[in-house]
Write a structure and sequence with these properties.
single chain; 151 residues; mainly alpha; 3-stranded antiparallel beta sheet
Length: 151
């Protein structure tokens, strides 16, 4: 019985995963072998397309010396690092400022107001909020539907 369940698992899980893995990795293998083949072997109709008989690095040498690939890569990396830094800077500062703005139903956005089993919301108390004085010394207080309509 155990051998049968292992066989079933192999058939239903491992074989499909191996097929998906093969189809996902096949283009990368094809690009690698095409980059390692010399031009004569690459364009020869009689050579095996799946294997490299005489590997060569001439395509990589041409890419790094005869083209603008290194400078283009440096420019791309510079632009991506600077744009990521600027977007994080602006998002952080605007998010910090937006968290201080009072607007209706703010607790739904700030704390997420988790719905309790009894139908009420549990949210951290905001003793600094204007007009609300919490009598509960705990860090959380029970908020009912009437309290939510008040926001």
């Amino acid at each position: 019985m155990i051998a049968s369940s292992r066989f079933d698992r192999t058939i239903t899980v491992h074989v499909p995963l191996l097929l998906v893995l093969f189809f996902l990795l096949a283009p990368f293998y094809w690009m690698l072998i095409a980059s390692l083949k010399p031009n004569a072997e690459l364009y020869s109709p009689g050579s095996n397309p799946m294997f490299v008989l005489a590997p060569s690095l001439e395509h990589y040498q041409h890419l790094l010396t005869a083209t603008e690939f290194p400078s283009s890569t440096k420019n791309t990396m510079l632009i991506s690092v600077v744009s990521t830094f600027l977007s994080l800077l602006f998002a952080q500062t605007s998010g910090l400022r937006a968290s201080a703005v009072a607007f209706p139903r703010r607790c739904l956005y700030r704390t997420g107001c988790i719905r309790d089993v009894r139908g009420a919301h549990v949210t951290p108390s905001h003793s600094d909020a204007p007009g609300r004085q919490d009598a509960t010394p705990a860090r959380q207080r029970l908020v009912t539907g009437a309290d939510l309509r008040r926001f």
